[in-house]
C-alpha cells in the first residue's frame, strides 16, 4: 500500500483500471446483462421505497458505470442522465439504452464527476442519485457535495445508497474485527488484479486508489453544501459477499442468524432549499 502520487495520476490509474474491466463486467454473471434485458433490475428494495415514484422526474446518476441502475430508473419513468469517467463504460450504457428502446429518455456522457455541472447543467435535476461503491473513488467529498447541490433544482433531492464505511475497515473473513483505522483519511493505493465480477480474469491495470470517508464526513459534506438532510438509514444487507461469513438471502447477503450484526450499507436523502 502506498500514499504517494498526485491526485491526477491516481485518478488516471483508476480510470485505466475501470476501462479495462468494462468488457469483463458486461460478460459476467454478476452483472447479468441478459437478465437485465429481460426485465430484471438490481436496485435494492429499500432504494425503491425510499426514493419513491420517479415518473416524469429528471434524474442524474453520477458514476453510473455501465448504466444498469441508471436505466432501471428510466424504466420506472424518469428522464435520466448518466455520467462516468470511463468512456468504454459510457459507450456500453448508451448502446444498451438504444437496444432497450430507452434512448429517448436516457443520455450518457463521459466526464469527471466534478465536471458534472458544466456537462449536465446547473439546476437541471429533480434527483441526483449515486449507488453502490461510488464515493470511495472520490478524493474530495466536500467538492462532490457542492457539485450535487449545483445540479439540483430548488426542492430537488440527493439520494444515495452506499456501502457503509465500516465495511472497509473490518476483517474479510468475518466482518467483525477492525483491521484498519476507521478515522484514517487520505489515499489508499493497492493492487487489485481481476475483478469482483471475475477474480480469475487476466488484467493489466491493477493499481487502484480509494479515499476513505466516514459516515460523518459524508453527512457533514452534504449539510455543508447547503442541502437539508432528510434521513440516514443503515442496512444489514449488501449485494455481494463482502465477508466470508455472510450468507445469501435471495439476491443479497446478510450476517447469519444469531450473529451480532454491523451495518453493511447506508442510504441518505437530502433536499435542496426552495427559492
Automatic annotation (TrEMBL):
Keywords from the UniProt entry: Methyltransferase, Transferase
GO biological process: methylation
Positions of the Methyltransferase type domain: 64-160
InterPro entries found in the cross-reference section: Methyltransf_11, SAM-dependent_MTases_sf
GO molecular-function terms, A-Z: S-adenosylmethionine-dependent methyltransferase activity
tRNA processing recorded as keyword: no
Keyword Transferase on entry: yes
CDD domains: AdoMet_MTases
Protein name: Class I SAM-dependent methyltransferase
Organism from which the protein derives: Halostreptopolyspora alba
Classification of source organism: Bacteria, Bacillati, Actinomycetota, Actinomycetes, Streptosporangiales
